[in-house]
Design brief:
By secondary structure, this protein is mainly alpha-helical. The protein has helices at 3-19, 32-36, 44-51, 69-76, 86-97, 118-121, 140-154, 165-175, 177-182, 185-189, 191-204, and strands spanning 104-105, 110-111. A hairpin with a 4-residue loop joins strand 1 and strand 2 (110-111). Helix 4 crosses helix 5 and helix 4 runs parallel beside helix 7. The longest helix is centred in the N-terminal third of the chain and has 17 residues, at 3-19. It is globular.
């Protein structure tokens, strides 16, 4: 994150923790947004190569929309963290919105295929787009890679936390990493969501991991 935004990000973290709201995509940690800037955006030619054998990243006989597969693969391969995978990204998108690109839930301030809140999505967009809070609707082209950036950024904060590392990431995305670390009642409240992500992971994971 540009230096001029670090103070704003820190203030935002404090506000989120004070409010304590359970909001999807609402996990901005002290170092998370900064770490997101260090994840790589996969160039189009590389994505094209991966798509030639994307059955190795995601099963081809599921409900994952074909038009989003390249974005999901991009998001799930942005960092070398084992639990950040295209299958996890797809599993979360299905659980969040059923792959609905025009989802709109103003009551929760959540929009798009990944149910991003505008104030949080801002920090997981490319640096050139972080100057202002984005206005919905949010395109899959913005929303899905941002999921990958966030998962890569928050994964280090969940190392050593009990439970499945992939599901801990999904929980961190939905309710924030510090709540997952605390292992409190918030995890129980989102158990149906985590069960859905787990089921989706089993459905979407390829027969053998990519090499």
């Amino acid at each position: 994150m540009p230096r001029r935004l670090k103070g704003l990000a820190a203030a935002f973290v404090t506000a989120v923790m004070t409010l304590g709201a359970l909001v999807s995509g609402d996990s901005v940690s002290p170092g998370g947004a900064s770490a997101a800037d260090q994840t790589r955006d996969v160039p189009d030619p590389v994505v094209g190569v991966r798509l030639q054998d994307d059955g190795r990243w995601l099963r081809t006989d599921t409900d994952i929309p074909q038009r989003y597969r390249h974005l999901i693969i991009e998001a799930g391969t942005m960092c070398d963290i084992p639990q950040v995978t295209p299958a996890l990204v797809a599993a979360m998108l299905e659980a969040e919105s059923g792959f609905d690109p025009v989802l709109s839930d103003p009551a929760k301030d959540e929009y798009g295929i990944a149910r991003w809140t505008p104030r949080v999505l801002r920090y997981y967009l490319p640096p050139t787009q972080q100057k202002t809070i984005p206005t919905p609707p949010f395109s899959p082209e913005d929303s899905i890679p941002a999921v990958g950036r966030m998962l890569c950024a928050i994964a280090p904060e969940l190392e050593g936390v009990p439970g499945d590392p992939a599901l801990n990431l999904a929980a961190g995305y939905r309710i924030s990493t510090w709540r997952v670390q605390r292992q409190g009642t918030e995890l129980q409240r989102i158990q149906p969501y985590l069960d859905r992500v787990r089921t989706n992971l089993e459905r979407y994971h390829p027969p053998s991991p990519p090499s």
